[in-house]
Design brief:
CATH architecture of chain B: Sandwich
CATH topology of chain B: Immunoglobulin-like
Distance between the termini of chain A: 41 Å
CATH class of chain A: Mainly Beta
Oligomer: heterodimer
Helix content of chain A: under 10%
Radius of gyration of chain A: 13 Å
Shape of chain B: globular
Helix content of chain B: under 10%
Strand content of chain A: over 45%
CATH class of chain B: Mainly Beta
Shape of chain A: globular
Largest interface: A-B, 23 and 26 residues
Number of domains of chain B: 1
Order of helices and strands of chain A: EEEEEEEEEEE
Structural class of chain A: mainly beta
Number of domains of chain A: 1
CATH superfamily of chain A: Immunoglobulins
Largest sheet of chain B: 7 strands, mixed
Number of helices of chain B: 0
CATH architecture of chain A: Sandwich
């Protein structure tokens, strides 16, 4: 059974600081997705990572994938309040099925 | 494009009642999915479909049924609702599996009392 673990689950950080969210998964996969969810809202796609070594950046967020270590990271640079949300990683298991992590609830304080 | 739409937005059911959650997409996507999200948790896959007439179980299918008679629509049926089915339900779609992210609807918040 595929397990996807994120850490930390809760993250409170100050504006302007950097931090990294980690996503570990238990079985081989080379497709990993990052989503953002604002409170009471739906999920918004952030990044699609499709191969070992893939790195994608959008604004203050950068995601990477190491399939050999079964690890993806979401790095936040110089955080701003607008980045406060819950971030999910999801791994493509097989047959179009995604397994989601529990989510990392990020709060950026002024 | 409306994207992925879901109705209703909110619903309260009594134990033992049945209902259908509607999901439609206008992006001509082949793949459609139903997830549930319990408070403070990630999403769990209930059922999915790779095309009209084809459906398959996900991680937590018990207590639910689906059908896919058209490319656009993928309704989720709850029979004999139970309190354990209190959750937020999200429908999603994608064009095809390889390299495509899933696009999510706004969700249906269901309470069973």
């Amino acid at each position: 059974e595929l397990k996807v673990e994120q850490n930390p689950l809760f993250l409170s950080m100050q504006e302007g600081k950097n931090y990294t969210i980690y996503c570990n998964y238990s079985t081989t996969s080379d497709r990993l997705y990052w989503y953002r969810q604002d409170p009471g809202k739906s999920l918004e796609s952030l990044f699609v990572l499709l191969s070992n070594g893939a790195v994608k950046q959008e604004g203050r967020l950068m995601a990477s994938l190491d399939t050999k270590a079964r690890l993806s990271t979401l790095h936040i640079t110089a955080a701003v309040h607008d980045l406060s949300a819950t971030y999910f990683c999801a791994v493509d298991k097989s047959g179009s099925r995604l397994t989601f992590g529990e989510g990392t609830q990020l709060t950026v304080n002024p | 494009n409306a994207g992925v739409t879901q109705t209703p937005k909110f619903r309260i059911l009594k134990i033992g009642q049945s209902m259908t959650l509607q999901c439609a997409q206008d992006m001509n996507h082949n793949y459609m999915y139903w997830y549930r999200q319990d408070p403070g948790m990630g999403l769990k896959l209930i059922y999915y479909s790779v095309g009209a007439g084809i459906t398959d179980k996900g991680e937590v299918p018990n207590g639910y049924n689906v059908s896919r008679s058209t490319t656009e629509d993928f309704p989720l049926r709850l029979e004999l609702a139970a309190p354990s089915q209190t959750s937020v339900y999200f429908c999603a779609s994608s064009y095809y599996r390889e390299s495509e992210e899933q696009y999510f609807g706004p969700g249906t918040r269901l309470t069973v009392t």
